[in-house]
Design goal:
Elements lengths: L2 E7 L7 H9 L6 E4 L8 E5 L2 E5 L12 E4 L4 E2 L1 H15 L6 E4 L3 E2 L2 H7 L12 H9 L16 E2 L1 H8 L4 E5 L23 H5 L8 E9 L1 E4 L11 H9 L11 E6 H11 L3 E5 L1 H7 L2 E5 L2 E5 L2 H11 L4 E4 L7
Parallel strand pairs: 1-10, 1-11, 2-5, 2-10, 5-7, 6-8, 7-9, 11-14, 13-15, 14-17
Antiparallel strand pairs: 3-4, 12-13, 15-16
Helix pairs in contact: 3-4, 7-9
């Protein structure tokens, strides 16, 4: 293995991980794209060759010939959704033989898992069955991909692939959900059922000393989908939701909106060892005409975008901060 670049969300998901992963892949330097956590509860919106496509399981690398896209053992897999996405991507982009693989030790989401998850009223899950699937994994009663004959054509031994067959592998690792939803570091119990940090990537067989860059993702404001009280009182939040199209890619549910939490951003960047941060949707606040952040001190408003950016850069000293304004520009 040559190196790994990790893409990790520093907020509550929906921050543009798919967009940034897709952009990084344009460089042509990567041989593999690895999804390292989560399941079909997360939707990554990609714009490729002028067409919009939402993946729930497939790594962004599936759109690039010559890149092997792998669903890692840190994920849980819905077989029906996986097959559906494979068919859709072939139809939409004319990709006849997608280079998509599933680590043989990836765990399966069953109908029973989805049925159980569908009864949730406390957390506000997407009813995708992730939580019960992860529980059964750690209870050592789960079903692995290698146990499903239907998946045999897609199975891969991740150790053999990345450490034996392709010793010069160059990997971009694509995460799911976000730090604020992490099972250990998030606002428990309003969290997801997997780890959403860089550590989750390493558990997919990635040596720590092969990590080259950690790309932290956020938005210039924050959004959240779930049952906890999250949205602030500013009437502008409904306008941000409208301008930003803040509706869940998986469920279509409206996302609660608030100003960027600088303390969460700094904590997430520190714990994940981030050296580059992309803050998306700066054009939304630009159109709104208001820039603000929140923290333990309350709300701080800024006169313009320049003041907002300078403040954040000061707080995130030593990290390259990039402000993104459109799907085509990082």
């Amino acid at each position: 293995m040559n190196f790994v670049d990790i893409v990790v969300d520093l907020q509550y998901g929906d921050s543009g991980k798919g967009k940034v992963t897709h952009h990084l892949l344009k460089s042509g330097e990567y041989t593999h794209c690895l999804r390292y956590n989560g399941g079909c509860n997360c939707g990554h919106t990609l714009i490729h060759k002028g067409k919009k496509f939402i993946t729930h399981h497939l790594p962004a690398g599936v759109l690039y010939p010559g890149v092997k896209s792998i669903i890692g053992p840190g994920c849980v897999l819905n077989i029906e959704q996986f097959m559906k996405e494979l068919k859709e991507i072939q139809e939409v982009f004319g990709i006849t033989e997608p280079e998509v693989y599933i680590a043989k030790n990836t765990h399966i989401i069953t109908d029973a898992h989805r049925e159980e998850d569908g009864k949730d009223t406390k957390i506000g899950t997407t009813k995708s069955g992730n939580g019960p699937a992860y529980r059964d994994k750690f209870s050592r009663i789960g079903i692995r991909a290698e146990d499903v004959p239907e998946l045999k054509p897609y199975l891969i031994d991740l150790y053999e692939e990345l450490h034996v067959t392709c010793p010069d592998a160059k990997i971009v690792a694509e995460g799911a959900q976000g730090f604020g939803l992490d099972i250990d570091w998030g606002d428990y119990p309003y969290v997801t059922s997997s780890s959403c940090t860089v550590g989750a990537c390493l558990l997919n067989g990635i040596p720590y000393n092969k990590v080259r860059n950690v790309w932290g993702l956020g938005k210039v404001y924050e959004t959240y989908v779930g049952t906890k009280d999250f949205e602030g009182t500013d009437p502008l939040f409904s306008k941000i939701r409208e301008l930003g199209g803040e509706f869940g890619a998986t469920t279509g549910r409206p996302r609660a909106v608030n100003w960027l939490d600088i303390n969460l951003l700094m904590k997430a960047a520190t714990i994940n060892g981030v050296n580059k941060i992309v803050l998306n949707k700066a054009d939304i606040l630009e159109e709104l005409g208001k820039w603000a952040i929140r923290g333990k001190f309350g709300i701080i408003s800024f006169d313009d975008e320049r003041e907002f950016q300078e403040y954040l850069q000061t707080k995130l000293d030593g990290i390259e901060v990039i402000f993104s304004y459109s799907p085509e520009r990082i």
